[in-house]
Amino acid sequence: MEYKAKYITDDIKLSCFEDKFFKSDIMFDHHMLVWFISGETKIVQADTTYLFKKGDIFLIPRNQLATIINYPKDGQPHKTVVMHLSTPRLRDFYANLDVKPKALSSQKILCYNNHPLLESCISSLIPYFGMKNLPENIASLKITEAISILRAIDKGIDDVLSNFEEPGKIDLVNYMEKNFMFNLPLEKFSYLTGRSLTTFKRDFGKAFDTTPQRWLTKKRLELAHYQFIEKKKKPIDVCYEVGFENLSHFSYAFKKQFGYTPTELAGRQNANR
């Protein structure tokens, strides 16, 4: 895979994937505003799946778990402009504003497809990627402009951008049952459930009577089996959507769990039709 990235600052980049696809399980530390130039992205979250393409603009809230799968499209690479709306910058922005954000039970990806104000703001960054020694204040002004536009076009955005609370201690069983398919370090799961890593492992053992890794592998394979039987999905798609990093490891683990490979299961299903 060939990946290229150009940065105006640490918070603004032009990202380009030129190979077949790129997959990653991510927890976003900052809000991310993304504008698509070419290619496609599938974003899989616990309760929904999004497909974004050329021209789309969307905001991914921070502290969200997601599987990101990037694809080239129509002979063009997967190319996006990504702007991080970091907590320190947002604190500065909201410091003198009288904003009291409402608590949100959940945060969804927010779509602003083809909005002329946002598209104009973000597309104007393109010439900057070819420049050297761009003054920091110029890039900062573009981020401030983007935040201001978001506030003008989305009356609920303050509840997202001005909420600086960190995850509190939540129900471990419910959270893990909902998010087990994301292949993240245990440190991330412990943070998102409001625990230290030591407390997370202790509470997990009490709740599930096994280790996190054994439980996660079993749950992911059970979900994969369901996807094959009920959804008739292909092994390559299921592999990445349930939290495995490569098809060979997935097939090995699947056979160890069920006694047959995904390919053998598909063959049985075809024979029974």
Strand portion = 15-25%
What is the gyration radius calculated from CA atoms? 21 Å
Major beta sheet summary: 6 strands, antiparallel
- If strands are numbered along the chain, what order do they take across the biggest sheet? 1-2-9-4-7-10
Task: Give a nutshell description of this structure.
The protein has 273 residues and is an alpha+beta fold. It has helices at residues 87-94, 116-123, 136-153, 158-161, 172-179, 186-192, 197-208, 212-231, 235-241, 247-258, 262-271; strands spanning 3-9, 12-17, 22-27, 31-38, 40-44, 49-53, 57-60, 65-71, 78-85, 110-111.
Describe the structure.
With 273 residues, the chain is of the alpha+beta class. The strands form two sheets. The protein has a six-stranded antiparallel sheet. Strand 5 and strand 6 form a beta hairpin. Helix 6 crosses helix 7 and helix 8 packs across helix 10.
